[in-house]
Amino acid sequence: MRRLQRIIQQEARGPFLISLVLLTFVVFTREFGRIAELLIRKDTQIATVLKAVAYLMPSILIFTVPFAFLIGTLIAFSRLTADSEIVAMRAGGVSILQILMPVLKAAVIVTLLTAAFTLFLLPGANWRLRMLRTDMAIRPAYSDIKPRVFFLHFEHGAVYNIPTQTPEKITISRFDTLDVPVDFPAAEPDNGKVKRPQDKTLGELTTDLRQGSGEDRRASLVELNRRIALPLSALAFGILAVTLGIRAPRGGRGYGFILSIIVAFTYYVMFATGSSLSRAGVLPITIGVWGADASMGLLALLTLRFADHESPLAHRIFNSWPAVCVSCFFANIWESLQAALVDMRDTIERRFLRLPHIRLRIARIVDMLMARAFLLNLVITLSICLSLVCLFTFFEIIDDIFQNQVPYALVADYFFFLQPQLLVLLIPISVLIATLITFGSLEKFNQIVAFKSCGVSVYRIAMPILILGLLTSGVIFVIQEYVLPYANVRQDSLHNIIKGRPAQISQPGRHWIFGQDGRLYNYNLFSSERNSFVELAVYRLDLKNAALIEADFAQRGDWRRDGQRWLLRDGWVRNFDADLFATFSSQSFDFPERPEFFDEEVRDSSKMTFSELEHYIQDLQLGGFEVDYLKTELYKKLAFPLVSIIMTLIAVPFSLTMGRKGTLYGIGIGVILGIAYWGAFGVFDVLGSNGLLAPVLAAWGPNIVFGAGATFLLSMVRT
Predict the structure, then answer these.
(1) By the 8 A CB rule, do 324 and 313 touch?
(2) What is the pLDDT of residue 304?
(3) pLDDT in tens, 421-444
(4) Do 550 and 573 contact (CB within 8 A), yes or no?
(5) Which range has highest mean pLDDT (23-37, 500-514, 595-609, 646-660)?
(6) What is the pLDDT of residues 180-191, one digit of tens each?
(7) Separation CA 245–CA 78 (nearest Å)
(8) Which range, 123-127, 182-186, 261-265, 347-351, is most confident?
(9) pLDDT at residue 287, as a whole number
């Protein structure tokens, strides 16, 4: 019996570890951009970045450890069922409880490990991360010099002093060098100095329960119950994995992946929603916090009750007309997809491959087999990755949704506009994993050997997948260029509303923006709704001679659509060349900048198309600003979409070296390669943004390095 338990544990250990690495990596992909920005724009030390990563890990692992345990166990039992090993065990007199025992032991270990995170490690990590954000400027810091922000060392210039009350009186001082000391204001008050319930230790929570106010006492009680309830989910996951796994169809591991995603997604959504409702006082703590655990526990016991024999109720449910309709619906979708692939192949063959100059024949069966297997694995992998990131994002904003009473339709809009960004990030890693799984499965079952024996080379087998990889690169470019900039603007605006902040365009405070023809705009506030300024000053500069040509000031400025001009009110004009000064109550000015120019003071490269970013860089260069970082981002808009085809080239030789190890080892290798690739992008970004590498080389460097390595490995494959 011990040997049997050891076999079950060994069968589940590999899928669990690989799933844990995969889930953690996929969730952490959202943070890669922030970590890279720290290295690029904040002048942060590597040790500080590693601390930030370490402090982030507990908040991720409390979800991925139980989730990976569910996936690993369900995959293991699905595989045992598909190979009829469960039938052999049952025929040998092994009961379902005996099969369940090793899983329950592992579930207890996972529960204790997750409890160690939630009860002891997570509060301290949350608190230290908040302090690190304050001390080391993970938030935008004063030392972060962005475009249109001035350095305070000047050479060979002049100082123009224009008094506010008497602008007609002006003094001009010329200098060779000038250093202006700046006393930065004290950092804004940080709410992080007051610990939130999720930042407090067990001792601090119990103190709040005894001495805190009614609201603090309830928040602490909810947090304490959450920390206990979340780890206990592993026990229900373990039982469900066994009882559902032993009923798996012959789909095996794919069935295990899909079913585990559904179970975990249902639990975590129920847990997050119930906890927030309990914190708001809408639901009792026993229902809100413990409802998800109770539901999963009850479901686990019911499935365990009917594990030995068929349930008439389950039989009636799965044979009812709604279930049959759903099954037929997905079957029709799959048949339509197959028909579309056949039509696409026939069109390509008819238009291009039957020309008299080209004597190329398509091995139809091989191409359809490879394309169908790859697309199926790609859709499943991408769906899992998207679900994970969306689930983790939902956990981050669920409290804000209830606190700010955000409509559910707005939340749905936010996730809708978030999808393009997630697709651009996750399609390459999904292509890599799908390719590894496809070729790994063929190699495991000796299908590659069968193809070779028929005279079909590895290169010919890989051709349809390489073509599909190239097509996915095109899809990424289209999304990145024509969808992502506008989706990012919209989802940022919705995210601000969910967080209780207004959709920001321009906030009160002095703003400086360079325009055309040497114009420098300085204003207190710009309203994009009214297209109007408050306290606008426009300086026309002679940058070559370090001189000020003209200064215009107005208390208010409005855009006149009828005349396509700016109407300034209550101001004055000072021309230094003609030595003229005049005031006005209302006067039109023909500034070349339109209202759209001022919509965003410093534009984010992710919210611009390639051409928009290119023109933006040119405008900044006219003002003499450093644009290496933006140039790197510009070239990355061309380089990044090609990651998918390079991932495909990498995956083919690696999958053929896995031998009979199969799908899960392919996923593990894919995660390692993905981490290496993303790490290379981060390193090259840092080098390019700091001027240590040409921007074009910084953007294309990872593709060149990994593409050359993939080509070399592919050339070494025995075809």
Answers:
(1) no
(2) 85
(3) 999 989 998 998 888 888 877 877
(4) yes
(5) 646-660
(6) 665 544 444 444
(7) 5
(8) 123-127
(9) 92
**CB of 362 closer than 8 Å to CB of 460:** no
- The DSSP letter of residue 311 is -
Q: Is the pLDDT of residue 612 over 50?
A: yes
Q: How far apart are alpha carbons 299 and 240 in whole angstroms?
A: 8
Contacts of 563 (CB under 8 A, 6+ apart): 588
| 3-state SS class at 177 | strand
3-state secondary structure of 510: coil
Q: How open is the CA angle 256-259-260, to the nearest 5 degrees? A: 80
Q: Which of 299-303, 341-345, 377-381 has the lowest mean pLDDT?
A: 341-345
194, 252, 684, 626: which is closest to 437 by C-alpha? 252
Q: b or e along 322-356 (b: 16 or more beta carbons within 10 Å of the residue's beta carbon)?
A: eeeeeeeeeeeeeeeeeeebeeebeeeeeeeeeee
Backbone torsions φ then ψ of 477, nearest 5 degrees: -65, -45
Give the angle 420-256-644 at the CA atoms, nearest 5°: 35
Q: What is the pLDDT of residue 145?
A: 41
| Residues 504 and 496 sit within 8 Å (Cβ to Cβ) | yes
Under 8 Å between Cβ of 192 and 138 = no
> For the residues 157-169, what does the mean pLDDT come to?
76
Is residue 158 classed as helix, strand or coil in its secondary structure?
strand
Residue keyed to tokens 């940058």: 543
Buried b (16+ CB within 10 A) or exposed e, 499-526: eeeeeeebeeeebebbbeebbbbebbeb
Q: Measure Cα distances from 698 to 97, 476, 683, 686, 694 in Å.
A: 58, 20, 9, 8, 6
Closest CA to 266 of 242, 299, 239, 243: 299
What pLDDT score does 504 carry?
A: 46
Give the CB-side neighbour count of residue 473, counting CA atoms within 13 A. Answer: 21
Asked if the model's pLDDT at residue 89 lies above 50, the reply is: yes
Structure tokens belonging to residue 91: 């025929």
- Spatial neighbors of 61 by CB under 8 A, at least 6 apart, are 24, 114, 117
Integer Cα distance of 595 and 593 in angstroms: 7
Q: What is the mean pLDDT of the chain?
A: 79
Global pTM reads 0.72
Is 242 exposed, middle or buried, given 0-12, 13-18 or 19+ CB atoms closer than 10 A?
A: buried
Burial of 547 (0-12, 13-18, 19+ CB in 10 A): middle
> Region 401-425: what's the mean pLDDT?
91
Map tokens 């123009």 to a residue: 160
Q: Could you tell me which residues come within 8 angstroms of residue 108 by beta carbon, excluding any fewer than 6 positions away?
A: 235
Q: Which helix (H) or strand (E) holds 344?
A: helix 321-351
Integer Cα distance of 282 and 286 in angstroms: 12
State residue 223's pLDDT score: 93
Q: Which letter, b or e, does each residue of 647-664 get, where b requires 16 or more Cβ atoms within 10 Å of its Cβ?
A: bbbbbbbbbbebeebbbb
Contact at 8 Å (CB) between 209 and 201? no
